[in-house]
Known about the structure:
binds uridine-5'-diphosphate, 2 domains, Rossmann fold, seven-stranded mixed sheet, single chain, binds flavin-adenine dinucleotide
Amino acid sequence: MKQTHTYDYLIVGSGLFGAVAAYRANKLGHKVLVVERRSHVGGNVRCEMCGEIVVHKYGPHIFHTSNREVWEFVTSLTPFHPYINSPIANYNGELFNLPFNLNTFRQLWGEDITADEARNIIEQQRRQSGITEPRNLEEQAIAMVGQDIYEKLIKGYTEKQWGRPCSELPAEIIRRLPVRFTADNNYFNDTYQGIPDGGYNVLIDRLLEGIEVRTDCDFIAERNVLMPLAEKIIYTGEIDRYFDYRLGRLEYRSLRFEDERLAQKSFQSAAVVNYTDSTTPFTRIIEHKHFDSRSRDLPYTLITREYPLEWRAEGEPYYPINNSRNAELADAYRQLAAAEERVIFGGRLAEYRYYDMHHVVEKALSLEL
Ligand code: FAD
Ligand code: UDP
């Protein structure tokens, strides 16, 4: 006898992946239940208000993509304002533009140097290091931008962020960053870039409109009750936890956010200032009002210091750590996942991939539902 289910889809997690999947399933006429273990929806894009300032509760989120379909999808749901991310690096009080571009090279090697001279300096430093085929993040960084930038802007920041020596981290992490020989401080190369007006909650609310959502509900803890409710499950939590860690535990990096409200108009000149030395215990300070020009003149401000830490079952597992041990273990879990007929695994945690928001939206838009 065919089993009848209360829902067509049970979606575990209300982050961007879960919310886009829920939206699409609902539009296709399916009956959907979303469960979320946190007390709010939105996952890591959740925002909170501090007076009139939108605060990105789990770290600054700038939407960027070159995929027109993704951009048109998100901007059709709610208006975005343009925002170009241009963080500043602070190395023991010396300031540099990011990403690594002609402005950075001039701040480091002299304000008159040309693009070709900068290229030559980098090439000379790469040759001196003897690196030809980079095998890890340290070698990749030196090959991309030379020893000076590696020492001042990469080594300290990266080892704080990941809690591991650069020589033990994969090269892909640093390849996320553009290197340019023009004076262009845009942190991303993408065609489209912006932030939803009023923050990401508006976007998430539009995605989840008309859909049943249960917050403070942990699927793993209530699996026996929840699993029979739906024909199909879309799971966006940690992949190793779904399988009760039977092959071993994957590692994740976490963050502690320390907010400070200040009765002053401005604290720093940019939304994001990275502290790239190894002794400052935080990686960056975010000043949220700068994400939207309309909040810049308010007489108060809110800053957040970000302290990286290893994830140990407390707090949120924000970043998969793609070293070779975790990559192999994640592959083994993906094989188990492929055999779960009723369950689709998607998003940063369930795929154990260092996805940006646009990747997650793109993946959720292409799900066969
Ligand atoms: P999540 O947002 O983690 O959502 C998963 C949800 O599932 C969570 O709400 C979780 O609570 C819930 N869940 C997990 N397990 C269970 C369970 N057992 N039961 C019920 N619910 C469960 N991307 C960009 O494009 N631009 C940026 O500027 C940017 N900045 C970032 C800054 C930081 C500090 C971090 C950490 C990430 C940043 N990202 C950025 C990446 C972005 O946050 C992710 O790509 C995106 O949010 C991933 O969405 P997701 O739905 O896969 O995961
Ligand atoms: N990074 C660095 N110095 C910086 C900024 C970034 O060394 O000032 C390195 C660091 O290893 C980081 C990686 O570049 O993890 C990718 O940076 P990105 O800003 O893309 O990381 P995100 O915060 O988005 O995860």
